[in-house]
Amino acid sequence: MNPVVSITHIEIEALPYSGSALIVSLENVGHQPVGPGSLLAKRISKDGSVQAAELLCPIGLAPGEKTRLRQLLGGSVKEMDFIGYDPWDGAPSVPVLGLLSWWASPWSLAAA
Q1: SS3 64
Q2: Eight-state DSSP code of residue 17
């Protein structure tokens, strides 16, 4: 089985003066190690603009290992869609399973 990572938890934490922080729990659910790399995402802001986002994972993950990735985001986030995981060693992109999207609920958008 090829390397596979799974997103088990996604959270956006509002920060008082610097936008927000994206926190993602990542687990290697495959049978092969996954090297250090980047979790790639598409970020949609509340104003409708779309930007690429990259969460750095500076450690490798053995099968069954978990880690939490944290990335500061400027501005307000309406939605995050996770695309894939790119190892830094040039290995092929690793498929991502689990929670592939996060979006702000309508009631939280109305309160903002």
Answers
A1: coil
A2: S
Residue position matching structure tokens 């939605």: 79
Which H/E stretch holds residue 109? helix 106-111
Longest CA pairwise span in the chain (Å): 45
| CB distance 21 to 72 below 8 Å | yes
Burial class (CB in 10 A: 0-12, 13-18, 19+), 25: middle
Q: What is the pLDDT of residues 40-59, one digit of tens each?
A: 999 888 888 898 989 999 99
pLDDT: which is higher, 24 or 47: 24
Query: In whole angstroms, what is the distance from residue 57 CA to residue 7 CA?
Result: 13
pTM for the model: 0.82
- Kindly list the strands in the beta sheet with 20-28, ordered across the sheet, starting from the edge strand earlier in the chain: 66-73, 20-28, 5-14, 96-98
